[in-house]
Amino acid sequence: MGCELKAKDIIQNILTVTSKKPQQDSTNAFAPINIALVKYWGKRNVELKLPMTSSFSMTIKELGTYITLTKSDSYEIFLNGDLMENDSQFSKRIIDYLKLFNFDCKFKIITKNTVPTSAGLASSSSGFSALVLALNDMFQWNFDKKTLSILSRIASGSACRSLYNGFTEWHKGSREDGMDSYATPYSKNIDDLCVTLLINDAGTKYISSSVAMQKSLESRYYNAWQDIVEENIKNLKQTIKDNDFIRFGTIIEQNSLHMHAICNSVGIFYNNDKTIGMINKIQGLRQLGVNIFFTQDAGPNLVVLYLKKDLEKIKKQMPDFPKSYSINTV
Question: CATH homologous superfamily for 193-326?
């Protein structure tokens, strides 16, 4: 569909009445990671990062990507203190995106991730969202959140969801140019909701999300997945309105298991022994009356959700339980 529509053309249309010359020499930005509760898994347009389905996520405002963007005569890209080769996969992805804008300069880019990179914890989402925010400030575009979300989506699909605090819905849209595919905030809360990252392997995952999700389109179960997602989003939003954590947790865990079942059906396996052991531990805690649920993106690591009142019970059963973060929309 719409193969004549190119990311560069869409971006140039957005920039029609804005400056392509920096209005300042350097700027800083931050964007949080977002964790998909109802997953984005599969693109209808690979270049424009248009999803097959809508999705629903939450941001963790204390975790994400810090970026310093400086005007330069050449590209220099640093990740967590290390200068990256410009032909590395990490740098090339950033440079290729920046070239879509036809800027009259290049950039020195210093990024720092507060979560492991390429480990299935949404570091690319926060990274590209932070980059778009930095560009918006450096060039004084003053774009609204909708436009920033579209620009972030073109860079890295789920980056469009990292512009807001709390719950966020990414609308799949139907237009070929993708101008109706962007994220909006969902300004309701689950009272005292907490989240913890369980890092089972901080290394780079063996197959990227982009490759895995497109291969998943071959699954005979994929059509059913699209129906599941739409139902899950509708029901999840209702559980948040109702402040019903148990139903909320059940939906997000089942959605995650469905996504990984599709991956498994096409020969993609992200779990390792630690992942399986931790899932068993979480399910065992529920048997003991502790309401704790997990979600898992494309990688071996888990994100667990629970209520603040249960944190001490969890720590008694899991003495090495990592840091807890509160999730809210204020």
Answer: GHMP kinase, C-terminal domain (3.30.70.890)
